[in-house]
DNA sequence: CTTGCAGGATTGTTGAACAATCTCTAGGCT
DNA sequence: AGCCTAGAGATTGTTCAACAATCCTGCAAG
């Protein structure tokens, strides 16, 4: 068969196919149920403090209690649910201490990723930045359409893609968890516009700094960015 | 009843009791099974690549399949097991890429914790460092007794307690997971002495720097420490 | 050497059942 | 009235047995 230069291309294709397959045969029932619940929580249909009844959800989600409990476990370890023994599962209510904790981790991880990009600049193709630009433009479009929750998710995805530049599966997992918890916090804040609007512009600026390969400057910018965001959420939190 | 000065002591006692109760009250069956499996994995009885049969383990652990599967889920999210749909659960086989990934995160988190201590030095009582000293001495004692796996766990605990100084529940959780995966890596290395011996001394030195409140120096030392450890593991890994 | 096809084994999911625990209400006591 | 106690009812924790879906193995055919 054909070998040589075509081989690496073939391997790359095999990887993408493998990824697609892995995405398709998810543990179906349990993970499907978890997906639905995850959306309900992150979109606010299940507010912090709400209890999730087992028998009720078995009927709604059309899964058995055992499968539902496996879904609960999945979400528990994402921080989107908490178990209270013999009392049930609840959507956690985060407080100011959690805000500080979450943002501390975000700063550490994200700033390190950006700073670390300088070391591997040569091997990093410009195309890796494309998802970031897509997110920025998605946020701008949603803002024009006055759809602020959509702006929020686009901004979130921007940061997920930013972390993704590090090619670290564990960082990706941690970030997914952190951002999910962050969404939980957003629901106690009434005005999504003030919450998300300032960061559209900041994300674009960050993207442009990355594109210009000014990594140290980008890292400093991002650090200040996250401090600003933390202060905003804390303020909204205290005055609720 | 007695009030005043004795009250805070009583409250402290209540907290420790509450913690003990919470530890005993665990979802018993599932978490107990998970505990046994966790030990088997981290101690090497279940080597990387091993498959865990459900029916076999239900008999050994004397729990139902559903409960066992919940235990599997728990360990899956600690990174100690991986699920392959319709094929079963396996002890993951980590490779060099995982070593690099794990150590990158360790460096980021631990170095940041140490550096961050400078900001809150005044509010940090000296007693918070005691667990670290205990770990160092435990490692030294185990080394004298030629019990190198014990040295390894003591060293691990040193780093767990180090992260604990940050008072961040999420960092604690992440570190627990990272160190569990690190143990997985240790099992592919034949000589535990060479693996753990150098770090007894380094941990003591790190402790002394912290005690002297030389946080920046400690952070730099820790960074170099972790780079050294990473290189050692990578070398042992490649020559196996 | 590859392809296709049973057959057996293992996992995925379900439903029902029982035990353990919590919550809430009612009643008795000081 | 206020507080403690007991018990009923509801919910969760755990087990079991069964069936469906999928994977692995070995073998036969091309």
Automatic annotation (TrEMBL), chains A, B:
It holds the Pfam family GntR. InterPro entries: GntR_C, TF_FadR/GntR_C, Tscrpt_reg_HTH_GntR, WH-like_DNA-bd_sf, WH_DNA-bd_sf. Keywords: DNA-binding, Transcription, Transcription regulation. Residues 27-94 form the HTH gntR-type domain. PROSITE patterns: HTH_GNTR. The keyword Transcription applies. One of its GO terms (molecular function) is DNA-binding transcription factor activity. The keyword Hydrolase does not apply. PANTHER family: GNTR FAMILY REGULATORY PROTEIN, TRANSCRIPTIONAL REGULATOR, GNTR FAMILY. This is DNA-binding GntR family transcriptional regulator.
């Amino acid at each position: 068969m054909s070998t040589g230069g075509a081989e690496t291309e073939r391997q790359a294709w095999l990887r993408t196919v493998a990824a697609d397959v892995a995405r398709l045969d998810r543990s179906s029932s349990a993970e499907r149920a978890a997906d639905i619940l995850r959306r309900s929580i992150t979109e606010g249909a299940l507010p912090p403090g709400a209890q999730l009844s087992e028998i009720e959800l078995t009927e709604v989600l059309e899964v058995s209690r055992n499968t539902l409990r496996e879904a609960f476990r999945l979400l528990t370890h994402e921080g989107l649910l908490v178990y209270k023994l013999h009392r049930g599962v609840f959507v956690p209510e985060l407080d100011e201490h959690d805000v500080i904790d979450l943002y501390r981790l975000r700063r550490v991880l994200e700033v390190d990723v950006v700073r670390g990009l300088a070391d591997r600049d040569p091997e990093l193709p410009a195309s890796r930045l494309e998802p970031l630009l897509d997110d920025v433009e998605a946020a701008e479009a949603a803002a024009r359409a006055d759809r602020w929750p959509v702006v929020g998710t686009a901004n979130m995805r921007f940061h997920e893609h930013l972390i993704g530049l590090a090619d670290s599966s564990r960082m990706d997992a941690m970030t997914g968890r952190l951002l999910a918890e962050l969404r939980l916090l957003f629901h106690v804040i009434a005005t999504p516009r003030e919450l998300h609007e300032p960061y559209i512009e900041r994300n674009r600026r960050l993207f442009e700094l990355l594109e210009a390969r000014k990594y140290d400057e980008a890292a400093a910018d991002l650090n200040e960015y996250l401090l600003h965001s933390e202060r905003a959420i804390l303020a909204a939190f205290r005055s609720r």
